[in-house]
Fold this protein.
Amino acid sequence: MLKELSFLFLLLSVLSCEQEEARPRLEKLDFNYQNYVNRELEKPMSVLRRNIIVLDFSTGECILEGSKVNDSIIVGKIKRMLSSGKRYDPILDSATYRLAGDVLVPNYMISASYSPNLNYRKYSFWRSEIFRAINELRAEFAEKRFQKNYWDLLDSPTLMDKNMLREIHSIYPLRYSEYVMD
């Protein structure tokens, strides 16, 4: 009797679901303070395979997009992937900002997998390298577009500098996910 009821419940549940077209969209990936202050700057991101930069640290080595990478060049590789490299051109979108003007904005997600047995120092190092790559891109953009030091913008009390910083964070948001491999 219990089996029949559970099967009937499962059948009714499945039949009551509406069929929807699968749309791989993520509304927010970067949950930092700037997104709460100025939500209208960032548009939803389409998540496609080409948008995801896959880093695999589960073996104790850095595997970036299927190739082993030396720890000393992780930052450079990630920066190159997010700038206008030929293989990654499809992830660049054109956008216009009030202060920065017309900009090619990378539409990306960095996904990192780790082993549960990984040494914490190694995990912390690799994670810092990923964050450093994004911050270096932000700093280079601030120098090039605004002739300002990114680190000075972070501490600046002026409204203009805060708006510049907000646009930089919108152009290069920190979209990062990590998971532990079993």
The chain has one domain: 24-180.
